[in-house]
Sequence to fold (814 residues):
Amino acid sequence: MTEITAPKSPVTAEQFADEIREQLKYSQGVTVEQATAADVYVAASKAVRNHLQDVWMDTQARTAKGETKTVAYFSAEFLMGKQLENALLNAGLTDQFDKAVEALGFEPKDIVDAEYEPGLGNGGLGRLAACYVDSLASLGVPAFGYGIQYRYGIFKQTFDENGKQVETPDYWLKNEEPWGHIDYNRDQKVSFGGEVVEENGKRVWKPAWSVRAIPVDYLVPGYKSGNVNTLRLWTARAYDEFDLLAFNRSEYMEAVKPQVAAENISKILYPEDSTKVGKELRLEQQYFFVSASLHDAIRFFYPGEDKPDLTTFADKICFQLNDTHPVIGIPELMRILIDEYDYDWDTAWSITTKAFNYTCHTLLPEALEVWPASLIGELLPRHLEIIEKISDQFKAELKGKGVDDATINDMAIYTGDAVRMAYLATYGGSYVNGVAALHSQLLKDMTLKNFSDAYPSKFTNVTNGVTPRRFIKLANPRLSDLITEGLGTDKWISDLDLLEGLEPLANDDEFVKKFAAVKQANKHAFVGFAKDHYGIDIDENTMFNTMCKRLHEYKRQSLKILAVISRYAGIKNGTINADDVLPRTVFFGAKAAPGYYLAKMTIQLINNVARVVNNDPDVKGKLAVHFLPNYNIEMAQNLIPATELDEQISQAGKEASGTGNMKFALNGALTVGTLDGANVEIRERVGAENFFLFGMNVDEVESLYATGYDPAKYYESDPRLKQAIDLVAGGTFSEGDRNAYAPLVADWLTKDWFMTLADFSSYANIQAQIEELYTHPLDWNRKALLNVARSGFFSSDRAIEDYLKDIWHTGPLA
Ligand code: TH1
Fold:
């Protein structure tokens, strides 16, 4: 790519238009007349990038001095969303861009829309990482995000004619991608396999094969902070493009095999979210990016030094492990320090434990990674040795603390057959945090109880947060303007606690009406978006009720669809008076892991309920259901601001935090939810009277499990539930086919692990309360406004402040 010399900021719209013209000419080779929106998008992106370049280099130079400890956020996923609009906002170039693009004869929206969304994450965990790099930069903290530039992001979801999910590859790099800058000269070698031999009294790893890790750098501009950090995503390439020996024997396919294998490492994002995967390639991916990143960090702080003094390494940088996926970094740093830099074990251990911290994002046992020792031994034999030694040291330490043998056994990092990554992370780092108050408590009381008993001071909580830049300012410009009008300042964009200042305005009916008008305008806009994107017609004078998140049994999309079916049946058979029914449009958005059978069947059921309901004249104008395909960041940015009622209905004790819940509250939706994850804190803050609570709490769930849960009992006892399940079982949503959903129905009636049936009545009952309030728009909107005013706590800036204070012990660059 031809780089144009960096222009001086700030620029005028005229200058910015000239910069876009220059990029069109010198970089793309087209005139303004020839340019398409896609051309202008690339040209404008490069022009913005050039504006950020000086600050980026300056931030790096100040970071490299090492005077302020740097944060490295290690994450297998970064779900960034589209970049251009965000970069413009944070660089303060939005107005110039709008005018410049118009002067060139284009609509700003068309240019922004021309960007292809990078989908390098599955859901909340990946989006959280993206919010955190935004907040780190906005707070001026020196930081790197480290991850993988997958060639294929999260799959694109469509539905076939039967309503089944169909996954298609997301080849997001098919056109020029102007944001990532590939830096061939900062590559790293990552090795695998082979064996460990004894040489001069040292254990020496002789790997069998290596791949070249090449960084692709994304600039992360802080919001008006004067800092631009780096998101460094690694891509894998082969060293030996061809095995010439094999080639000479004209075994062409054999010859290119190593290259194909090497490049496979960064080829695809595993589409599982909070579900079990145990694939070799995934471990390769994890080691690949973590090893490259650790070496990169050493090079960054000790450039050109053969024998750097790494005893100060953990004063210069700390590594935050985003769930267990990067935990192999702990033995890797040990290996680097001992094998590559000749430190003794104890010195290496003290540097390593100081440098790492671990965030746990789940309570589901199946999502806590456990790797077969045989696999680690094959792929990373030296690391397995180190893990064994860590495990032995850990056992001895516990023994020294007086822990009994049975407990020590339960806590084993290395069991002989397997390596438990969450345990390794807990022992091998300084702090462990959960992602919401309830979740952190449950980690201490249940999942990691023995660890918290032995090391109580390691455990802490950081409740998740979301960035107000993307999820309010960009996603909801109308609400943003109203907030600024209400507060008399736009400082809330970087200090979200200021939203509290809106609280008195909840008593001002005129302001509440303006707030209501914003929501109505957002609904109207979404109707247009849905028509354009999905070709559907939506009645904007219905309540917009949304459930969007990954499809998972514990999240209980089943509960929502059973309630919808019950409503439908009630109207049809007259048990519900049609005139009393509040017109609702129910939106679902959710991807299911491709191998997750019941989740995919749930999608199919919802689509078929939608088909039946939407085509039934008896419920026309009363109930509509839409499963919007391919839920992604763009859809979230459009759907959340238009939503009036948000569903956060997971079984209590299963959703670690949730972050969608925060986005909805901040955009003025009311929540119907259980006491799970961050819902608890949202409800505490917005006020119980401004939150629709239903269902069992954690203790009730636990005691029901303990006394023996029988879902059939609930099926028998609530006629609404019985009727809904009977309709599914009887073929109403499968053109008479009674087998279509048999596995789902059987699961509900005999297993129902997440107690959907037990919570059904409570959920169905609270609908009356919801609808009653909705018929008083002023009261509803007053509550919604209070949700906004009282949710400033859920900014990712606050979350990052918590990490800085309680875990990283660092702050902004001087
Ligand atoms: C999610 C949690 O389910 C969610 O409650 C939380 O808000 C979010 O992380 C951010 O903290 C998780 N996503 C994953 C993805 C994988 C494995 C475990 C989790 S937990 C691949």
